[in-house]
Amino acid sequence: MAKTLAAAPARTAPPPFWKQLPQVFKYPAHTDALVKIVCFAIAASVVTFFPLGLLWSRLVWLAFLAYCFGILERTARGHLVAAEVFINDRVNKDRRPILQVVIFLIFILVAVAVTAVAGPVAGQVTLFVVTLVIPASIMVLALDERLSSALNPARLIETISGIGLPYFALCVFLFLLLESAQFLEVGLDILMPEWLASILADMVTMYFMVSMYYLMGYVIYQNHDALGVEVQVDTAMAQHNLQRAQGGAKIEPDILGPETRGLIADGKLEEAATRMENRMRREWDNNKLHDQYLKLLLLQGQPKAISKEVNEYIPKLMREKKAARAVEVYETARKAVPDLVITDSTLLLPLATQASDLRRDSAAFELVKGFDKRFPESPDIPGVYMLAAKILLEKQHDYAMAQKIFQHLVKKYPQSPLVPEATRLAEIAAKMAAPPAA
Questions:
Q1: Cβ atoms of residues 206 and 60 within 8 Å
Q2: What is the chain's mean pLDDT, rounded?
Q3: Can you tell me the distance from the alpha carbon of 325 to that of 309, in angstroms, rounded to the nearest whole number?
Q4: Is 385 helix (H, G, I), strand (E, B) or coil?
Q5: 63: domain range?
Q6: Long-range contacts at 287-293 (CB < 8 A, ≥ 24 apart)
């Protein structure tokens, strides 16, 4: 095997945030976050019965906001997985929650002032603009911890441009999260006693706030190079930790040596893949090793290396009469490499037939799509036509298209042994496609 593991920034770049939304919603469900959410929510309600209760409640919310800022900063530095116990180690007091409140007040005053001077339309436009820059302001405040930076137009524009167009998608997601929390709060008020609804509403709001601040932190980490943010966890290790937390692309340690396991644990995926590749030269018949190597390539996101391994592994599986496993390998790889192509024309028809037998019709069609154009001299073309038409006829009930393919097979390949069956099935498709008699 040739070396296929050269580093490439595009390959190791963190996935876009919209692909991490399940993790965004799951993050507050971690034990540490849930305990803090419940405690803060109960405290915010209980202290309202004390003298100056409203003030105490607001202080509890500021403390919770400090926790959210800690999550944002921690995530932005590359810690994408929730900690068992998250303690924000600080030598000085965290003034960011108070500064955020000040920023909100300043933005509101700016909108009010513009309305008073230039009229309601200009005021609405100003309010829309300041609403758009609030996420950028929070992200800057989280890292710089200075009010001047969080209000500096140049700094905000630099942050937004560093993220690019996805920033506006981020704003939409944050708005939807906020609206969802408020919608659930209204439902709780209707269905439950006031005291219980108050606590549960605070819990819902806090849950969504943790998601929002984690999301903003992830966006910073995703674009840390463009934003000039120093991270504590390199991209490979961060993605490895995230994949492991999500239960994806698990590497089975039982067939790997201690050095390879150590490299994977340290996030040194390229070095681990190189060791596995070298070992595969010596143990080519070890299918478990092939499986783990492919999982490692999928974890890294290497399209060329994945395609190369698939085009070597699938022929091996087909020779070993393991067509069902070959279909699984193809489907798994194709999710990561949508334009994946099996280069051996002799494998496509039997592999697609196996996929059809397993009711994986989409995979079957993808395997044989454009087969006659790619391999115009292949003797398998009539079989490919027959397979595609039978799927259309028997499983997808597209009788008209099935009839056309059967008829094309009979006309173009009259000497094929498949012609009698194609003729019969064409007649059946024609009857099924005919409109019912009046």
A1: no
A2: 80
A3: 15
A4: helix
A5: 14-101+128-232
A6: 287/316, 287/317, 287/320, 287/322, 287/325, 288/252, 288/255, 289/255, 290/316, 292/251, 292/252, 292/255, 292/256
Q: Which amino acid is at 110?
A: V
Domain count along the chain: 1
Cβ neighbour number for residue 155 with a 10 Å cutoff: 17
Single pTM value for the model? 0.53
Instruction: Give the model confidence (pLDDT) of 52-83 as tens digits.
Output: 878 888 898 888 888 888 888 888 888 887 76
What are the Cα distances from residue 342, in Å, to 280, 305, 334, 350, 352? Answer: 21, 13, 11, 12, 11
pLDDT of 105-125, one tens digit each?
998 899 899 999 888 888 888
**Residue 243 near residue 299, CB atoms below 8 Å:** yes
For residue 3, tell me if it sits in a domain. Answer: no
Q: Per-residue pLDDT for 158 more than 50?
A: yes
Residue pair 202/37 in contact (Cβ under 8 Å)? The answer is no
C-alpha 432/C-alpha 17 separation (Å) is: 47
Structure tokens at 168: 């506006």
Asked if residue 121 is part of any domain, the answer here is no
> Is 430 part of any domain?
no
- Which tokens hold the place of 47? 């202290």
SS3 344: coil
The two tokens of residue 42 are 């109960």
Report the greatest alpha carbon distance in the chain: 96
Is there a contact between 213 and 68 (Cβ–Cβ < 8 Å)?
Answer: yes
Answer yes or no: is 309 within a domain.
no
pLDDT in tens, 210-265: 888 888 988 898 888 888 887 776 665 666 566 656 554 444 444 444 445 555 55
In the chain, the amino acid numbered 207 is: Y
**Is the pLDDT at 436 greater than 70, yes or no?**
no
Cα separation of 436 and 438, whole Å? 6
